[in-house]
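Dissemination and training. As part of the outreach component of the grant, students in the summer workshop were shown how a complex can be specified as a set of sequence lines and then modelled as a single object. The example used during the hands-on session is reproduced here so that future cohorts can follow it. Participants entered these lines:
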Amino acid sequence: MKVSDLLEKVREQKPLVHHITNWVTIYDCANIVKVLGGSPVMAHAPEEVAQMTNIASALVLNIGTLTNDLIEAMKIAALAANKKNIPIVLDVCGAGATKFRDQKILELLEQVKIDIIKGNASEIARVSGLDVSTKGVDSSEVNTDLTLVAKQLAKQKDCIVVITGKIDIIASKDKCFKVKNGNEMMEHVVGTGCMAASVIGTFAAVGDDLAIAACAGLCAYEVAAEQAVNISSGPATFKEKLFDCIFNLKSSDIDASQRIE
Amino acid sequence: MKVSDLLEKVREQKPLVHHITNWVTIYDCANIVKVLGGSPVMAHAPEEVAQMTNIASALVLNIGTLTNDLIEAMKIAALAANKKNIPIVLDVCGAGATKFRDQKILELLEQVKIDIIKGNASEIARVSGLDVSTKGVDSSEVNTDLTLVAKQLAKQKDCIVVITGKIDIIASKDKCFKVKNGNEMMEHVVGTGCMAASVIGTFAAVGDDLAIAACAGLCAYEVAAEQAVNISSGPATFKEKLFDCIFNLKSSDIDASQRIE
Amino acid sequence: MKVSDLLEKVREQKPLVHHITNWVTIYDCANIVKVLGGSPVMAHAPEEVAQMTNIASALVLNIGTLTNDLIEAMKIAALAANKKNIPIVLDVCGAGATKFRDQKILELLEQVKIDIIKGNASEIARVSGLDVSTKGVDSSEVNTDLTLVAKQLAKQKDCIVVITGKIDIIASKDKCFKVKNGNEMMEHVVGTGCMAASVIGTFAAVGDDLAIAACAGLCAYEVAAEQAVNISSGPATFKEKLFDCIFNLKSSDIDASQRIE
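and obtained this result:
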């Protein structure tokens, strides 16, 4: 897989990535798209989300601070994305923490076609029907074969499933990749998970194969994170350097460091 | 008071701290809990706030960008917290700036049990009934004995009252502490007050004595701030270093620097 | 034009600048006002916006993540600002991206008196009636004489029109300035445009001549940006250093570097 080629495509095409996301990490989600070379837009008024999605190349949905109104706006935007045939990433942030989240995820998965479901271990386990709970939005331990969970959910929903963690798992109905460039510091910063979904959406906007796009996006993101952690004194300098490293990321850096299986 | 012991408890127990807060500093509030070692969650849909509070160890409410809907969600969450007997911190952000804020604070204080009321000098003076106004969300000068104000309000509401400033005042109905580790740079960054409430909530989540927890939290936060200001060139580098310094804060640093009376 | 004199007035008077803005860059908008020496407040509940505007010295409106409710709050606040005769800056963020935005901008311009309309090239072209579309919130190329567009719109609406870009254009009905201190790095960070509106609002709060205030604000902001870019390794360190440089900005720095025509 040539990860760096897809990054170059992002930089050339500057895809517009429409987000309906949470109020906590909304800035970081926008900014990660920007430093990758894309163009982020965040809009959630039901009156305009379809039109905004219509000029976009990907749609990223994140239920971190969901409300009924926001979910309705997501559905409108998602239907427009389906019609236009652009990829939708759904970050199932906090799945398993409350019944409300679980219900709304179910509604989204039933009423629109989601192309990529992304979450941490306990969130994806929950979406796949296992009886696990999530401690707020941080992953709980899941004693099960995550690769199997991802593959089964991918098959069941006919979509890509991404489980992020120290090792990311990216499964489609017929293939499965692992990205092993993650590092522990990413867990100590709020928003690295949400940004991962935005990165995936940005790469999906320019890639034909969504599993490869998700994989490439995560790999580029995490290679930059490895660079950033080496020049950081803690989580906040790490986060700042992460943006800089993504902006300055060279194809040769990725080629030399990517660990994809 | 052994401040560092409580910080170690936060790091060991990783308490889930549920926030219903403002849209300005929501990220920073989450991130400060994270770098302390806790697990933040921000959720405000009325359908899920009770359940989210039920899995949390503390609830932090901040009215910085309040609306009627948000206040109603706060009440639901607060009743759940009262029932579960976990501490609630209320940041009375902007008290005295508008009648709407004053009314909503009154409603919250009447309808639910708030364990810790936190604000700057003019906000707390206003909540205690004095005829002062707040210039937006920044403190106005208050020509009164703040310690007395805090003590009286604590007695009246049977709760802990925290007035943040260069010297923080923490009063319960029968004791009063002062934390003298504050520094001026904190006034030049948006969000240091909001983050203080999140820090207090995180410590309250693991402490038995809420006055001591509030005091210890502020002390740890401000010792880290003193370290950060020494390696900063202005308010933005200060804020970044503050997160790093909290993450790296050693018990011995706190023990050597804490100035509590 | 003595830009540094107006910066000193901001630092002395510490004007309260009320914002009703978007959820993406709301923190940065507040923080830029703070590091300039002003006092930001963000409040959008319809019940309190008039009273909050009444204690403020300027009102900044930004439609980046507009909803019908938010626009109604903006109208209430704007009428209060008009009555009190304090300046209103409207950032027409995303004009041309959707019909909803265009309609709401039209409503605002018809129902209240906006003192300063601010946008990027394609946004302002759209507001002036040209048939251009905006790619989300990033500027599209506009093949027209921007200075003429700004002047005509200023005359038509009897207000100041600001087009931000590498060269900023500030037009009133009878004069026109250009600020040439912009640099390319500003385009690589989400929020530099929104912050520009907050800077303009802060300077407008203390200046008598709004065109000069807008011009001076942008010049101070961009001189600090030039300093910041020289000590940065990418967009994120740039943004952080920008806040520090504004906080530390000296009159002599501005006097030596300002490029206004």
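Chain B has a mean pLDDT of 96. Students were then asked to discuss how this feature might be tested experimentally.
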